[in-house]
Amino acid sequence: MPSSRTTLPAADEEFTLDALRGDGLERVAAALREHGLVRLRCLGGRSEVLDIAALLMSELWQHRDADPDGLTVIRDTGRHDGRVGFGGLGRGDLALHTECAQLPRPPRLMVLACARAAEDGGESLVVDGKAVLAELAASHPAAMEALSAPRAAYFGGSDGHFAPVLEHLCGGQWRLRLRQDELARFSAEVQAHLPALRRAVEHHTSRMRLACGQALVLDNHRVLHGRTRFTGERLLLRALGWPRPVLGMEAGFPSPCAAAGPAATAGAAGRG
Q1: Is 93 exposed, middle or buried, given 0-12, 13-18 or 19+ CB atoms closer than 10 A?
Q2: For the chain, what is the radius of gyration of the CA atoms?
Q3: Average pLDDT along the chain
Q4: Among 12, 168, 217, 249, which has the highest number of CB atoms less than 10 A from its own CB?
């Protein structure tokens, strides 16, 4: 699974279900905390994806499109192409986003497991929000301030809510929330900085072509994900939920610089 222009999937190790049942769980937890992403291989089907979710998540979150067991089948349904909020169920490009950005508390972990690869295209796209934050802090500190405002964006429809794109948490931690379709509306202050944000996202995008039996585990509060358009009968299984305490994942991800907040981050960038 080649990547480009980013160190997000820095750890080359691909974990198996058997490894997670043994001492590999501690290494997976460390990789998630460090990189926001781990890779899995040799998954045999739906039951093993559920086993992975049970090992990593304290509970599954039931998505609108999920089956009763909590897994969502991501495929071209033939009915959803072009429908706002249903891009994953078509075969076109899927813009980079965090899952369930419209919710007050989006699920933290996501498992994306390939059950059938596309004939052509269908590459998974991932972006480390920590790298995006670092670029903005160094080159566009005014964007950092706008994106971290409490009402930086409105996510969702009539039942959505306002939230920062880059939320500053206690202890210098950050949380990313983003979507790039009609269900995200940005404040006037943020709109002026959207080109800088989109350039930073593009600079740090990795492409990965998942083969059957391979999977990604993503920190949904840190890592953007998307997809290129495809042909054929591509099919992924997705699980969403919250990490088990044993993973040791505190809220958010650490700042890439010593600064604790937006104003201090801008100052640190100026000193660099």
Answers
A1: middle
A2: 18
A3: 87
A4: 217
